[in-house]
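Morning. Coffee machine broken again, so started the prediction first thing and wrote up yesterday's gels while waiting. Chain of 132 residues, entered below exactly as on the submission form.
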Amino acid sequence: MPHPTNIKSRTKSRVLEVSFDDGSVFELPYEYLRVFSPSAEVRGHGPGQEQLQLGKHEVTITQVEPVGNYAVKLVFDDGHNTGLYTWAYLYELGRDRTQKWQSYLDRLKELGIAYPTVLPKKPAFSLKPPPR
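Came back before lunch.
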């Protein structure tokens, strides 16, 4: 398994650049990282429990926090911060980016969801009592 040599968060282009000692350099869009978060919130606790992530095309990473020598915790501006991205998983995300992203787009298409995805608007809070 290659070891990381550098990690840079490019906020203007919304890309996390990760370099490895085998010469691989991956530019991972923030949206891609958010959609494929390794957290239980996104992946679920078993097969078939995955939660399709929508409305993440403008998400940004506000912090990249090292976790020991094996991972980073990415803090996103939508409040998501529970996924630990191991170096092995970041390498996999870089290596398999084209196929993984295409499977995400195919899943959206199957469900009739246009890309870029949009979150449904939440109804406005009202202080009016419900009709009788």
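Residues 97-110 form the longest helix (14 residues). Going to sketch it on the whiteboard this afternoon.
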